[in-house]
Amino acid sequence: MYYNYTNGVESSVVDELVSTYNSLESNDVEHKNPEIRTSTITVLDKYEHKGISDLVYDFGRQANNDAYGFHIDDIDYCQFNLYDEKEAGHYRWHMDFRGFNEAKKLKHRKITVIIQLSEPSDYEGGELQVKYSHYSEKQKTDMLQKGSVITFPSFVEHRVTPVTKGNRISLIGWIVGEPWK
To answer: Residue 64: how many CB atoms within 10 A of its CB?
Structure first.
């Protein structure tokens, strides 16, 4: 259900991504329902931040070649996500795929790509869990590493458990393609 790249992004590139994140104002307007999710989101324009979109898309394309074999041809968009201990930042079980009823949507989300931007020592809790996936302890540790890239089909349920200490920052993007048939 997943395909990951441990330390897939070099530390210096992660530092640049964090610097970009720190330079932006959050444009989150709808993601503060404590029953479902508490996180702060900064959505990136895929043209203004083309280098970031290309980075995420390249990992999505590589994962697709290595594991999934879906028809993909673009990136929806990317966003930075901050899970903060002050809000017990979390996201309950959900799918990123928005369903087959998106008749007006020309493309469907097919692959979710998450790049870990925080050091594992920066926070406690905040574990990304992918339903039906059984990770060894080493795989769990690898997923926490700064620069690790986690991918999975967007129709697979996943969640982020509450952050109990510190902050977890990640970069997320969705790889899209023609509607599922």
So the answer is: 20
> What's the pTM value of the predicted model, to 2 decimals?
0.93
- Give me the sign of the Cα torsion angle 161, 100, 132, 130: negative
- Within 8 A by CB and 6+ apart from 169, the residues are 18, 21, 80, 81, 82, 83, 117, 118
3-state SS, residue 160: strand
Residue 74 to residue 64: CA distance in whole angstroms? 12
Helix 11-23 to helix 50-63 angle (10° resolution) is 130
Strand partners, 42: 80
pLDDT digits (tens, 9 = 90+) for 4-32: 999 899 999 999 999 999 999 888 766 66
Pick the CATH number of 3-177 from 2.60.120.620, 1.10.357.10, 3.90.1150.10, 1.10.730.10: 2.60.120.620
Give pLDDT tens digits for 96-133. 987 666 555 678 899 999 999 999 999 999 999 999 88
146: nearest Cα among 15, 2, 3: 15
